[in-house]
Design a protein that fits this description.
alpha+beta; about 260 residues; six-stranded mixed beta barrel; globular
């Protein structure tokens, strides 16, 4: 007798599964019940795995992302939870471009940097390792433009909630975060430079024009040298975030 092939074995297996499925369906229709299956994260929280395992998992996830995705923004993160509890990324702004270290916040929408005109209202040094504070000077960038109150960006609901804009004036903002941290200033539009996932585990440098806040006044822990940073970039799902603006510009260019 010839040995049975894989197809034959699978066919028998499928037949058995189908029989059990029909039996289960018949039983469940006669005796309705609610079935609960316990589900937990593969690491079961931070206590379920070592730091090296978490880093390896993140590295594999990042590699899959770069290998299968194109046109996504790729940003390296720095920071530590041991001292300040914040994470930051580096972003090039202006033309010519200068690097700025920005705090990453997934719970807010505004992207802003401390401006040169802020003076004593903004921090001038940081004790974070490797972070150099550089104020943004819009007058030194050939692509910088002030956003007016009549701009569509300024009339969007998210901006109207934090602005007291008046006709023919700069589109300003006043924002208070959880606690006593506050920032205020006005909006400008300029080029930003970043890394873009290009597929096949590669990234490439690219740029885009976005609107962001030019901070002229800060207060709270934002001015504390222990965790001072040049600005903040919000990553929630609002349409005024940097990522949303870049995505909208890309869709418009494809039309």
């Amino acid at each position: 007798m010839e040995p049975r092939g894989l197809g034959d074995r699978l066919g028998g297996f499928v037949a058995v599964v189908d029989w059990w499925w029909c039996l289960f369906r018949h039983w469940s229709l006669m005796f309705p019940v609610n079935l609960v299956f316990p589900v937990s994260h593969k690491f079961n929280g931070r206590e379920g795995a070592s730091l090296s395992e978490l880093k390896a998992h993140d590295h594999r996830r990042h590699a899959r992302f770069l290998g299968a995705t194109q046109n996504a923004v790729d940003m390296a993160l720095g920071g530590s939870t041991e001292r300040t509890g914040l994470y930051f990324t580096k972003l090039g702004i202006g033309n010519p471009s200068h690097d700025y270290y920005l705090e990453v916040d997934t719970g807010s929408n505004l992207f802003w940097v401390s401006c040169a005109e802020c003076g004593k209202g903004c921090p001038d040094r940081s004790e974070l390792i490797g972070v150099k504070l550089t104020p943004y000077d819009r007058n030194s960038s050939s692509t910088s433009k002030v956003v007016s109150c009549g701009d569509d960006f300024c009339t969007s609901p998210s901006v109207k909630d934090i602005s007291d804009c008046k006709p023919d004036e700069k589109c300003n903002y006043h924002l208070q975060y959880v606690g006593k941290d506050k920032t205020s200033g006005y909006f400008v539009k300029d080029d930003v430079q970043f890394q873009k996932a290009s597929g096949n585990f590669q990234t490439s440098s690219t740029s885009g024009s976005v609107i962001f806040g030019c901070g002229t006044q800060q207060s709270g822990v934002m001015n504390d040298p222990k965790g001072a940073i040049a600005g903040l970039i919000g990553f929630d799902q609002d349409n005024i975030t940097m990522l949303s603006q870049l995505a909208a510009a890309r869709r418009k260019g494809e039309e």
